[in-house]
Amino acid sequence: MTTTFKRLCVILVKDYKLDPQLLTPDATLESLGLDSLGATELFFSAEDVFSVTFPPEPVPLLSLGDVVRYIDTLLAEQRGGQPQATPAEPEAQPVR
């Protein structure tokens, strides 16, 4: 089974031509060269890939780990369950 982190990395490598070795849960979006427009585009891609809807309110997501936890939370909320921990993020916490 593919984890949220791995699926997000596939998007980043494919769409942003990023080196997979740079993609760690602690990597900040800024350090990867994603400005606010790039992050917005990433979220649109993530909506398609994960079949979730990001709310219109901005959420402070600084690192890839933040994005993974947020996607897992959205998946759980939109499908009526609890967030599932991924190997990249063993203690996924809901973002509020």
Q: Your description of this structure?
A:
By secondary structure, the chain is mainly alpha-helical. It has one domain (4-79): Non-ribosomal Peptide Synthetase Peptidyl Carrier Protein, Chain A (Orthogonal Bundle), CATH 1.10.1200.10. Helices cover 46% and strands 0% of the residues. It has 3 helices and no strands. Helix 1 (4-16) crosses helix 2. InterPro entries: ACP-like_sf, PP-bd_ACP. This is Phosphopantetheine-binding.
CATH class placement? Mainly Alpha
Number of helices: 3
Shape field: globular
- Characterize the biggest β-sheet: none
Strand content bin? under 5%
Domain Carrier: 1-78
InterPro entries: ACP-like_sf (IPR036736), PP-bd_ACP (IPR009081)
Pfam family, one: PP-binding
Protein name: Phosphopantetheine-binding
